[in-house]
Amino acid sequence: MFTRNRKLSGRILHVFKTSPFLSTIQFSTSHFPFLHLSSSRYDQTRCQHFLHPSFCPVLKPVRDFSSDSIEKMELKTVLDVLEQLAPLSLAESWDNVGLLVEPSKPRPIKTILLTNDLTGEVMDEAETMRCDLIVSYHPPLFRPIKRLLQKDWKQRLAVRAIEAGIAIFSPHTTWDSVEGGVNDWLVGGMGSGKVSVLMPAVSSEAQKHRLEFSCLNEEELNSLLKRLWKIEGSEHFQSSRISSSLTAVVQVLLSHPLVSSSLNITQVQQPPLLGCGQGRLSVLDEPVSVSTALQKMKKHLGLAHVRLALGEQQTLESEVKTVAVCAGSGASVLQGAKADLYITGEMSHHEVLDAVARGTSVILSDHSNSERGFLSVFRERLVMRLGDAVTIAISQKDRDPLQVI
Ligand SMILES: [Zn+2]
Q1: What keywords tag this UniProt record (predicted)?
Q2: 72 and 119 part of one domain
């Protein structure tokens, strides 16, 4: 006998009934595997792992780019490698990453120039060396452009790249986020420690919804599920049109009085991508003094000077056990992080005062000085992936616009 309080259980791919009369349906926008959810076993089964293999860079050549294939190295091949080393899905939503300029006439990629910023001087350098691809960490094209004129320096650079047939790629926050990327490199300057991510990344590819409802009986559930399957034309409720398919499914469910009154929709939270995200916190294996921390970071960043704000009650001899870092302009990521020391490129006067009042010391290196050193780390990874087929250079003209006189 079926009652309203007893529920059928099922999910859309293979309807099963682990706990009678509760129906659970799950949607996904990607081809990631479904989590196997049911009302009674949700907690035990929700931890299915879905890390994409490309999130774990493996530093070995993906292909044998032997010398006879030098002439054949295509832009797409290089782009594939770049995206394997730091998937574009890791970028912040506001960012503008990936291929930004693509020449109309494809040509083999023989020379790649790595730079933190694409300035006029760096473009001069790229043209002189007959560069085929510029990898600029900061995206030289960021805001929407309505025209390409010579009076705007960024538009001018875009025109020069197009005329010279040079492609431009920008990784930006994908490098910040990826495990082993800019922020891991930055925190590594303080020595070994137990490192965690301040703002963990979550998968942007899979949005899942869990729908639960009650049915009068098994026949009604089966009838309902048949109608739902027809919406997508298959038993797989996978669709890139998540909003439209979800709406259509909900409309069907709402047409049944009992189902309608019991329907519960929840968005399934994605697990964080291990090791990826913005900012890093390190609990140092060997605590150091503030003074030693300064020396370590100057050496790591290759700088003669950095700026220091001592936290309240702190001295140069105070002990630093925990360090929070964020490359570039890190205040929004570091805000609230409990650490003895913040390391970033730049913070505003008031953001520094806030940190100091909490007893946290701050080291500022100027924006791009906290990022640029990673170029040589990344160059090694590219060389390992592309072999001798491509010349990979780091810009000699790229530098932070600020200098201490
Ligand atoms: Zn930056």
Answers
A1: Acetylation, Cytoplasm, Metal-binding, Nucleus, Phosphoprotein
A2: yes
